[in-house]
Amino acid sequence: MKVVKRFFLLGILVLLAFGLTACLNVSDEGSTDGGGEDENTAEAKTETPEINEGEEIVKIGYSGPLSGPGAQYGLNILNGIEMAADEINETGFEVDGTTYKLEIVALDDKYLPNETGVNVKRMVSEDEPVAIYLTHSGGVFATQEFNEQDNFIIMAYTSEPRMYEQGNELMIGIPPQYSVWPETFSKYMIEHFGNKMALLPTNSQYGKDWSEAIVPVWEEMGGEIVHESDIDFAKETDYFTIMTNALNEDPDVLFVGGPSEPTALVIKQAKELGFEGGFMVMDQAKMEEMSGFLDGYELLNGSIGSLPIEEENSEASNAFVEKYKSTYDTQFATSESALNYQSLYLLVEAMKAAGSVDDRQAIMDAVNEGIKNFPDENMILPFKEITEEGSIQWKSEAGAVEDGEVISIPLD
Known about the structure:
There is one protein chain. By secondary structure, this protein is an alpha/beta fold. Helix content is 42%, strand content 19%. The model is unreliable at 1-41 (pLDDT under 50).
């Protein structure tokens, strides 16, 4: 009888051990804080080109959201990069007598800065990329701590102006800084809707910084902030309570933004609750993409944001839009795709002008020469120069939705 009891107790202990192990595994897999995932288990998405004898590879990294609420935003960026790489790799590009092709190595960071750091360290160790595309300000700030020491160029796709305060010599800021938008946005909203605004941005650092930029401009123009809140798009999917609280303060304008899909749903919720005012949309959310989630532009009437790339209506932009939609079987091409597509071509032109694919500082010093040599057929959006701080200067316009149509608004 004692033997039976021992075996019985041993069996219970084994079952408990297996159960505990399973619980731990599920906890790690389902974690959203990035702390439980071993960096070596993340699967890399790699675009490796075919090379001929004598040709060599230049590796370009990407770390951005490919899952979670920011996934479409991250995919838009990655698609633009990969589309440019595929075109460049059709013939390759020559530097100092050698033909090179590009290999894109992409890792998902779930929009979490700590995951960005893990991904970047992994890519530097395994792939030695010349440059790495980063897609949010938190990831850029985390990576600025070591990119100069580890000798790679940050291709920063965030409009956060504070990233230039670090004086990082190996960083290219791709999109226009969001500081170009507040005056034009505020002037349009006050003229068309009124001076009372409620703040409902994404709760990321980017959203907080955007709010800090818009509030003083709004108030200087005679505006008033009647409600302040933010939205955690990683957790919130029902915006009824948040929107009800904001509308109880009777605002004329709602300041909203984040990834396009949840921002579109925030606007839809406001409309369903009877809001008839204006929407000031942070530059991350794209009008054209939101219209896809909302079955057209009607629900976006009264919105102002960045001008859709399709509204550029140049030969290069039209060709890009058509090819992009065909390649990725999608309804829209966004500025994330277009500007990152164009930036990879610029990086290659800078390598050619520098006469090197691995001297990172020489490549940085040659970016303005690369702009001068930039091919017209790839000039989707005209750019002027890169500043000493590393910010690409573009010709930009705002876009407003009136009567279901997008109109361009020149920047003040």
